[in-house]
Fold:
Amino acid sequence: MKKIGIPRGLFYYYYYPLYKTFFTDLGARAILSSPTTRITVDRGIDAAVDETCFPIKVYFGHVKELCKYELDYLFVPRLVSIENRSYICPKFMGVPDMIRASFTSLPPLIDITVDLSRSDRDFKDQVLKTGRLFTKKSSRIQDAYEHGKQELEYCKHIASQGYTMAEAINIWEGQDIRQQRDGSLRIGVLGHGYSLYDEAISMNIIGRLREMGCTVVLPESLSLEQVEQEAASMPKRIFWTLGRKMVGSALKMEKMPDIDGIIYVACFGCGPDSFIGEIIERKVNDKAYMLIVIDEHTGEGGLVTRLEAFCDMLKRRRRQQVEDHISAYG
Ligand code: SF4
Structure:
């Protein structure tokens, strides 16, 4: 049985059920790297160039871990676009090349190009090309891909019930995870899935807020149509897929009366975050808003203090309605 290494980083949080189902249905075994730890981070910092953002460095750490195993292939897709007229951050395009340049000994890479910006014709060819590494039957490859898409939809459905994508994947894999209890505060938490749902990158912001008695509302629990509708109210269309999702989610959350405040988790060194965080800060005027920028040097103590202060402020606002509608910005 052929073994495929899948790094637990970047779009793992959005697509793993599809990847795993596809390869498993074709008779291969998907080997996933372990959850991110300080060791993964240090390995990634050693291997990646300094200029990349934190999540890319962490991804390198996962690749380094997978290099220890005897793999037939390493799955490192080259993501350009995952939807019509929209793009993923350009760093994703260069990931397979950066990995080839940084590691001396690698299993053969499956660096399928995903570019759905104009049509899905090329992408279908890429799926078939990947599948032919395992079987000659086109129909079997097509069935594996369709099955993968169904599993991904099921996983998204789990996430829509208030779980993070990481929790939804674990539930999809058969783990038993308790649903969060309703907290005294409801906080919208935004950020790219690969930084927000990786507990080592985000320093478990979501878990900490839940421990502080907050219910966390995530972009995955909002209706996609409503998010797109809100994002469409911007004077210019945002062509970054994740950026548009974040702005649309923030605007939607601002209108939800049961949400007390919004936190945006951005990564230091992230180009898109540098203006998406700013746009949200300027647009969200009727809710308390906090931008948290994280990198490999972010201290846990400072983060906890900021979260506690934010929650205290929201509780005070609830008690003293006079503070309503005063923007935390400016
Ligand atoms: S969007 Fe930002 S955090 Fe994500 S890969 Fe690009 S630079 Fe890094």
